[in-house]
Amino acid sequence: MAGLLVSGGLRLMKGGDTMSVIYALLIIKGLKTYAQVPAKLQPEVKTYLAASDLDENGEPLPAK
Q1: Tell me, what's the pLDDT at 8?
Q2: CA-to-CA distance for 18 and 4, rounded, in angstroms?
Q3: What pTM was estimated for this model as a whole?
Q4: In a domain, 26, yes or no
Q5: Which uninterrupted H or E stretch holds 2?
Q6: Origin, by domain of life (predicted)?
Q7: Spatial distance between the Cα atoms of 51 and 29, rounded to a whole number of angstroms
Q8: 57 within some domain
Q9: Which helix (H) or strand (E) holds 51?
Q10: So what's the pLDDT on residue 64?
């Protein structure tokens, strides 16, 4: 989750998509699901989650 916060925060400072970061954090907190994310935001939300080693459900990715 720290990776998401860092990458999201840096992206926001550079004018990134605020809503994508918010949706990613809501997924991590269990308040929203990936299916509830608007289709146009899903790719970026998935990128934020993957940057934090999380899948679309906010669960840890399998160890490599």
Answers
A1: 57
A2: 13
A3: 0.73
A4: yes
A5: helix 2-13
A6: Bacteria
A7: 16
A8: no
A9: helix 42-51
A10: 73
Q: How many CB atoms lie within 10 A of CB 20?
A: 24
What is the token pair recorded at 4? 């998401």
Evaluate whether residue 56 is within a structural domain.
Answer: no
DSSP three-state, residue 57: coil
Q: What is the tally of helices (H) and strands (E) in the chain?
A: 3, 0
Q: How far apart are CA 48 and CA 62, in angstroms?
A: 17
Among the listed residues 25, 17, 59, the one whose alpha carbon sits nearest the alpha carbon of residue 41? 17
- Domain limits for position 7: 2-51
**What is the residue-level pLDDT of the chain in tens, covering all 64 positions?**
556 555 655 555 454 578 888 899 899 989 999 999 999 999 999 998 988 889 999 999 988 7
State the total domains in the chain.
1
